[in-house]
Amino acid sequence: MNAGFDRAQGLAALTKYNREPFHLLHALTVESVMRWYAEDQGYGDDADFWALVGLMHDIDFECWPEEHCVRCVELLKDVNASDEFIHAVCSHAYGQCSDVEPVHPMEKVLFAADELTGLIGAAAKMRPSRSCTDMEVSSLKKKFKDKKFAAGCSRDVIRQGAENLGWELETLMEKTIRAMAQSEAPVNAELEQIQASL
Ligand SMILES: [Fe+2]
Ligand SMILES: [Fe+2]
């Protein structure tokens, strides 16, 4: 799989249109989660592609929330992104603001994990450790069932994502917690570094 650009070019474009720590943290988190999943799912050779899709998937959201998954096409073409890269980015919000269906396993993982990372991040903030490194699936399931908690994270999208992959919801949760836990420290460190450079 060929993205058409590298991470340094991607990060430069991302930080041109994203300045809020919340959005930058989300981009870095989904990037690292996608890298973890590439290895987990037997796509290690394409791990850079999976990760870069994760990094860039919400590039247009901070500046153009009303044109999410539409405006990104021109922003990604500006960095010479390949058609398969643009397809993958647009498919992450299928049925919400995009009619590009997730087809490739990478796209299905992105669709499923994107929304869930938000829920896990919100749940981590409530913990004494303020971390997901000591989070159990059972405690995340409680947060999932509590509709008032992180109400912006669509439970339907997460459920749909697990179904598209043919996974139990618990499997998606368990894997995504693990993926986020292993990269939590480096992601936070890079976020600080990026903010200092903006
Ligand atoms: Fe999005
Ligand atoms: Fe996202």
Fold and architecture overview:
By secondary structure, this protein is mostly helical. It has one domain. It has 9 helices and no strands. α2 (21-40) packs across α9. The two termini are 31 Å apart. The mean pLDDT is 97. The structure holds fe (ii) ion (2 copies). One fe (ii) ion binds at residues 58, 61, 68, 92-93. One fe (ii) ion binds next to loops.
Structural category: mainly alpha
Q: How many E strands?
A: 0
H-E string: HHHHHHHHH
Mean pLDDT: 97
State the share of residues found in helices, binned by percent.
Answer: 55-70%
Question: Unreliable runs, pLDDT <50, ≥5 residues?
Answer: none
Shape assignment: globular
Strand content: under 5%
Largest sheet: none
What's the alpha carbon Rg, rounded to whole Å?
A: 16 Å
Total helices: the number is 9
Oligomer: single chain
What ligands does this structure carry? fe (ii) ion
Distance between the termini: 31 Å
Number of domains: 1
